[in-house]
Amino acid sequence: MSTPDLVDHFFRHEYGRLVATLTRSVGSQHIEDVEDAVQSALMTAFERWTTTGLPEKPSAWLFRVAQNNLLETLRRGTVERRIVHEVGLEQSLFGATAREVTATSDSVDADLLRMLFLCCDESIPVESQVVFALKTLCGFDVREIALRLFASEANIYKRFSRARSRLRELSPSPADFADALHESKLPAVHKTLYLLFTEGYLSFQPETAIRRELCEEAIRLGTILVQHPVGSSPETYALLALMHLHAARMTSRQDEAGVLLLLEEQDRSLWDQCRIRVGLEWLAGSAQGDCFSRYHAEAGIAAEHCLAPSFQETRWDVVVECYSMLEQIAPSPIHKLNRAIAVAELHGPSAGLAILDGFEPPTWLVGSHLWSAVLADLHRRCGNTEAASHWLIRIVQEALVSNTLLEGLHFATRLRNLVGGGQFPWIHLGNWFVWSIWIDIRILPIPTGLRLLVFTIRRDFCRLGLSRVCITFAGF
User: Fold this and answer.
1) Of 370, 432, 374, 451, which is closest to residue 404 (Cα–Cα)?
2) Paired residues of 260 in beta bridges
3) pLDDT value at 340 more than 90
């Protein structure tokens, strides 16, 4: 297993399992100690395994080290020593083997599900619930969560700290941990799984646009959820349908260089028909009762795309209707933007622009290259070359600021060629100044202090399949 795989795949997966199992053992009042113990175990494993190789049973190894770390922490204070004595952790839980992690996946799955619901306690603000679950169970770092939730890193850290503090105040015992599953927490659990899948399907990580293991983890947790009486609801069925239908197109979403492909560019013969059938089965099951959630609407849109013989033969009238319902159920500027795209396919680009005419997008959307990319494309299709060029430049600006260089430049390169080419002009970003030069990246020097930045730029352009391109640098 390579170092990137070790960190991004195995460690992220094991982090949530270990936190859930150890928290069930000692209670969530010790969640901070549990997290520290698990992080220390992962750091020890990283240092050893990268030089000596993996042990025979890596999951059991991690569990043993983490539980020893936690026991040592609990031994330090008077209160902790009393807890160790009263609960009998040394003889029962911590004296046991690592069978809870390796022997029965059912028990670990149950721990994960209970911990997921515990993170979503109704006394914790919803925004803090999601952050805590993504950080504690899914292994996201603060930056990843901030990008996905359109918030600052400082704000995300405050939300996480509030949730952790509230759980300490509640101080549920190990016995209470078993009763954590409540139907009132289900919406927050759904949102957490939705965000987990979304981060895998369209990642904000600059290194990779798709993180398949996160999608599979979200589907796995959703499947565990739907098998429990509390989680067996139409919304859960619809969420699973949405995830399976999107996952069915995963292999066709990138070209050989790793660049994301638009829906109309994808090879539909690569779509996983078996997974599409599974998704449609979940969607059919979601029709029980009178509930119609945002997950139903989004799954309906995904189903229309999966069932269409070609992009041109998509039933855009149904897609537009689904987006209209989605806007009513869960109002969002992103849903309006997507509806404008669908309307443009149904009635033409002018009709799509009319949807956005007079709309004042929020700051986080204005700062996203997605907003600029949609406007650039719609103006281009309307023949408004000057307006298209304006929004094209904005794509590069926003991609540079938001650290989504690869995706932003992919849009810019595509649209720039359609608009008619030409070198990018000078671009000003407030107190930052940016200039563009043409350079052959195959011989690009790497100055000291800019090594990582220049390497990232060079890698991203190579993945775009370009050798002589417009590279944007920034400085004071």
Assistant:
1) 370
2) 254
3) yes
Q: What separation in angstroms does the CA of 429 have from each of 222, 295, 367, 376? A: 43, 38, 12, 19
Considering only residues 346 and 174, tell me which one the structure prediction assigns the higher pLDDT. 346
How far apart are alpha carbons 297 and 389 in whole angstroms? 34
| Crossing angle of helices 316-329 and 333-347, rounded to 10° | 160
What is the pLDDT confidence band of residue 175, given thresholds at 50, 70 and 90?
low
The two three-digit tokens of residue 78, written as one number = 């008077």
Torsion sign (Cα): 170, 171, 173, 178: positive
- What are all long-range contacts of 172-178, with beta carbons under 8 Å and residues at least 24 apart? 172/27, 172/28, 172/29, 172/118, 173/27, 174/24, 174/25, 174/26, 174/27, 174/87, 176/27, 177/23, 177/24, 177/27, 177/28, 177/114, 177/118, 178/24, 178/114
Across the beta sheet with 427-429, what order do the strands follow? Answer: 427-429, 432-440, 468-475
Is the distance from CB of 254 to CB of 202 less than 8 angstroms? Answer: no
- pTM of the full predicted structure? 0.70
